[in-house]
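Hmm, what's this shape?
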Amino acid sequence: MPVVITNCSNNYGPYQFPEKLIPVVIQSLLARKAVPVYGDGLNVRDWLYVRDHAEALWTVLQRGILGETYNIGGHNEWANIRIVELICDLVDEMQPQLGGNSRGLITFVKDRPGHDRRYAVDAAKIQNELGWTPAHKFEQGIRETVRWYIDNQAWVSEVLKQ
């Protein structure tokens, strides 16, 4: 069977289901509720903007070698607490009517059992063999994502009803 396999790092961006870290943080801040952060917040993830992931998949479909496996990474490793703080700052900037001081809503909660300290993939192969690299740095993609969630609260509400 002619196949190529891809593995990716954590995705984020518009339309991400609201139970995931980034949408949870945004929604909590908009509602002025406590923002839960597991453990000490120093768990690290490599983040891949969803549009970059789609481009990488297209690249693999067009130029990948049958039978090969490609890791798709964002080259954006961030500790969870740094992501939460950045989102707090973006919400304060984009929604000043909420009163600011979003970082004051951060609440550390008990870590999940078996929670990995770091998730990341080595994406050198896709870069070296197929010439693909992500177009979005995390700071750019997260800004677009926060804006999207602020502007699309009707979608979030509808998804949460289901």
Summary: The two ends are 37 Å apart (CA to CA). The chain has a mean pLDDT of 95.
